[in-house]
Design brief:
alpha+beta; Uridine Diphospho-n-acetylenolpyruvylglucosamine Reductase, domain 3; Uridine Diphospho-n-acetylenolpyruvylglucosamine Reductase, domain 1; four-stranded antiparallel beta sheet; 8 helices; 24% helix; binds flavin-adenine dinucleotide
Amino acid sequence: MSSAEVSGASRAQVDAGAVRRVRLASLTTLKVGGEAELWTVEDDTGLRAATGEPFYVLGAGSNLLVSDEGVPARVLRLGRAYAALDALDGRRDLWLGAATPVPGLVRRAQRLGLSGLEGLLGVPAQLGGAVVMNAGTRFGCLADTLHEVEVMLDGSLERLSAHALGLRYRHSELPAGAVVTRVRLQLTASTPARVQALMDQVDAARKGQPKVKSAGCAFKNPPGDSAGRLIDAAGCKGLRVGDAMISPEHANFVVNLGAATTADVLALLALVQQRVDQPLELEWRRWGLPGGDAPQPGWQRTERDAV
Ligand SMILES: Cc1cc2nc3c(=O)[nH]c(=O)nc-3n(C[C@H](O)[C@H](O)[C@H](O)COP(=O)(O)OP(=O)(O)OC[C@H]3O[C@@H](n4cnc5c(N)ncnc54)[C@H](O)[C@@H]3O)c2cc1C
């Protein structure tokens, strides 16, 4: 790829592989999605520059459905410098990079006897994505331990309290254009054995979830009910379009049997919605698709608009 094919990237960034074209299917857990320009940023200066133009932010790609045509804006990914698991050293009040993998964090907290993250066992997120989705289970969610976040917003670093994020069930209200860079958690002192006992309960509740390619639960649970129960009751388990199938094990999981496309997944979701007699709200974030997320506004673009 030449630098001319990449909007605003320097020759050096392209040559170093920091900016390249990729199929997003390779970076999402459902393994569907077309091409985009991927910008991997390793520090705040690079992130500031990358957020100048409209962009999407990619975490672990575990709650995403991306158009087969890809997206017309740059996709930012926080590099290793933002995945600072080493900072978890026994303190209860700590800042962690937003690219920190949640599974490793949950295991490390258990070994250190720090409690509060057990409900996130089995969530294959990065910390930033877990904040945005307020990820969790009925045993607990990220909001339980989140104190504040640092974000890159309009070209500057800012701190926002957890309260300002409006966290509720699989929902946050991060300001438009914000990228979570660091996350402050407050954990509780416990013992490795007690934390493990809670994790065993979460693990037992997760038994029966499919182990194949998926993006977790497709739909949010309606108040007082379970989307999985409704989809199962509508006889949708095993329903298939192409290689996209409603998991026979868990009716709220769409699994990719190998060669599914986003078009297959959308057709399958439409079939499910036809059969379930009440509207269901998708939990997945959608990029490049009707009703999905528009790119985040870049700060340079915003400044130009203001003139
Ligand atoms: C097998 C499996 C099991 C799952 N189980 C659960 C579960 O039990 N509970 C649950 O809540 N979820 C579950 N999920 C869904 C998913 O893991 C969560 O929604 C998770 O929070 C998504 O995080 P991510 O890093 O993958 O974000 P992505 O999917 O990459 O992105 C999700 C959203 O967050 C935004 N985002 C990501 N990082 C940042 C950042 N640094 N700054 C700003 N915005 C950002 C993205 O732009 C996007 O809008 C599961 C998924 C799978 C595949």
